[in-house]
Amino acid sequence: MDTIFALASAQGKAGVAVIRVSGPLALTAGAQLCGGDLPARGTSLRILQDESGERLDEALVLSFTAPHSFTGENTVEFQTHGSTAVVSAVLDSLGRIEGLRMADPGEFTRRALENGNLDLAQVEGLADLIDAETEAQRKQAQVILAGGLGKLAEAWRVKLIRAASLIEVTIDFADEDVPVDVTPEVSELLADVQAGLKKETAGVRIAERIRSGFEVAIVGAPNVGKSTLLNALAGREAAITSEYAGTTRDIIEVRMDLAGLPVTLLDTAGLRDTDDHVEGIGIALARKRAQDADLRVFLAERDEVLDVEMQQGDIRLLPKADLRDDAGDAISGQSGQGIDRLVDHISKVLQNRSAQAGIATRARHRDAMLSALVSLSEAQEILQRGPEFYDIAAEEMRSAIRALEMLVGRIGVENLLDEIFSSFCLGK
């Protein structure tokens, strides 16, 4: 196996840069740059030098022996000064050592997976943690990275193995008198796993939203102040505002952090009848995005008929509070009136929905769990037909077990790995 190296910290100037080396020659390469042997596990302050003995930098050097490292291999990390010149010099020196090569994107994490230090769900959690922008995303990613989904899948798997084993015993001793009817225990075990899978599957959509971001659409007729409200919420001129109807034709998106949740605000085209072909396309798109959004904020008069149906949790406010005598349930992006109350309302609605999120966060997770559910439903039905069908029920249980193993990447995910690791940087 090759020994790989790469910059593990961000590109550009910094106080400290981290350069990682992993593989069978990691300690040897580290000793060569440091001009002496490294401890099998520990830290030391060393002078780094190239093959001619020229000083490169003074660095804190961390060494790890397999399997006690992130990758499960011998690993050395150099914490150098973070100048571009220092990093380039150290990387160039490593590249001239025989048997070393630059790492591919995500290769360190891929080796951690292949060496059993991480399961596939944890790899996905690590990717989400690197991309996390809000507190909710950080917490969600940490649960996955800590092995939360893997532990849950393993608990289900243990119960299914127990159920399948009981059935197999009955099949093996079919010609003998089996003193205990195992069907009730098997059915109970299957029902317990089914309940867990259903609960977790139901929470995937919300968990996906925490990972990718909730969408909140601002909806209303032209010139009610949607773009002005968006600009006020964003704290900048994100959308063009004017007194002319139809100014906003495209959907304008602004991403922000609301109470630790990732939220994308959508400023939609004003909903009205129009003979303008281009504006009509924008209105149709706005109506579709508003319907599909997680939450809608309607700016409309009390007697106004809405073009988009209100859904549970949606917010309806009177526009242009600054021009009204009675502005109790009105809002104004121009004056800022009602902005704080709206932000609090949106935050509370989305936080309540976030509480329904499960541990699983991706469509791949949902598909694997749904596959297991289908197999378990079939097994439950077949069990009721009697012992002569137990072998078929056992096979359905084994199918469910395989689906759970796919969930954490034990089997059948080779075609996914290239896509997953392509999103990682070189040093991860």
If you consult CATH, what is the topology of the largest domain? Rossmann fold
| CATH homologous superfamily grouping of the largest domain | P-loop containing nucleotide triphosphate hydrolases
Q: The biggest beta sheet, please?
A: 6 strands, mixed
Q: Kindly state the mean pLDDT as a whole number?
A: 85
Radius of gyration: 29 Å
Strand content: 15-25%
Tell me the number of structural domains: 3
- Choose one word for the global shape: flat
Order of helices and strands: EEHEEEHEHHHHHHEHEEHEEHHHH
Describe the structure.
The protein has 428 residues and is of the alpha/beta class. It folds into three domains: 112 residues, 2-Layer Sandwich (Gyrase A, domain 2); 122 residues, tRNA modification GTPase MnmE domain 2 (Four Helix Bundle (Hemerythrin (Met), subunit A), Up-down Bundle), CATH 1.20.120; 144 residues, Rossmann fold. It is 45% helix and 17% strand. The protein has 14 helices and eleven strands. A six-stranded mixed sheet has the order 3-4-5-2-1-6. A five-stranded mixed sheet has the order 8-9-7-10-11, sandwiched between helices. β1 and β2 form a beta hairpin. α6 packs antiparallel against α7 and α12 packs antiparallel against α13. The chain is flat, with a radius of gyration of 29 Å. The two termini are 18 Å apart.
